Amino acid sequence: MTKVLMKGNEAIGEAAIRAGxxxxxxxxxxxxxxxxxxxxxxxxxxxGVFLQGESEVAVGYMIFGASACGERVMxxxxxxxxxxxxxxxxxxxxxxxxxxxVNIMRGGPGLGGILPSQGDYFQATKGGGHGDYRLLVxxxxxxxxxxxxxxxxxxxxxxxxxxxxxxxxxxIGQMMEPVEFPDDLKTEPSNKDDxxxxxxxxxxxxxxNLVKSLFLDPTxxxxxxxxxxxxxxxxxxxEVLYEGYNTDTDYKVLIVSYGTMSRVxxxxxxxxxxxxxxxxxxxPKTLFPxxxxxxxxxxxxxxxxxxxxxxxxxxxxxxxxERCIKGKRKVDFYGECGGDIxxxxxxIEVIQGLx
Length: 355
Fold this sequence. Notes:
This protein is of the alpha/beta class. The chain has 14 helices and 15 strands. The strands form 3 sheets. Strands 2, 3, 4, 5, 6, 7, 8 and 13 form an 8-stranded mixed β-sheet that branches. α2 (33-45) links the parallel β2 (23-26) and β3 (49-52). The protein is globular.
């Protein structure tokens, strides 16, 4: 494989094409508009479709329609845009249709700002729309991982027949890094004959498939929700991804961080190591399912005295960290959310304050 220097947003678009996605609907919003710009050119070159909706609300239902037909489909947006898609995402989850959503987060709440943020953790991991559903949420720490996770997302969406979210901050969308597009992540679409509304003649079947999220019978609605619940439990067993950094040492402090923020934390850990201070990092790659067991084990290591969640938010993932640790260790928090990314020196200052 040859490495290519690409901006994160453009690499995400190319990764989707290489994963077999030929349907992309979107509405421009900073800091992810380059995905749409890139795919507006690339989709026609691969006999694919790019369509700009009149709003993010419309885009959400375009995604629903394509996914209900069994097509590989993706949209990208940023924070407020994903909010507008929330209703459609809930419908897609309830109707058990595979789709990929990418959120390149900007600052908030409200219009906020266009600089990087991690303020949509709650939105992504706790549903974001109405009803009992979850998203499988992948959190890349750079452009290469964004490529790999985008390609994997289509396979996961089809495996669980539900929406998958790629959650990256604005810096991941805007920065440029060398990337490779792995051939081994290409997969054939799963069999859709049993569920997609792709036409009986097309499917060579006499069975009528109705894709819906409306269940007026309470027993039927309860059964559908139990099916969804079982999928989320399966995700917890099979799809947890994480990275440990400097966790083979006798660290006194454990950092839990994800995305771009985790890379800053790694630099801080390397700098502190030179000073004889050992600090560990556990980085969730999946925000749902969350690496609960792994965080608990890393936090309760004998040498570890305190855990700190470091985020580009006012404290969202920290609630899941506290839940995992179950009071066995003190859990602290540090975050900034105006768009400035904390420096390694600032992280060191915070850690030294804990020690």
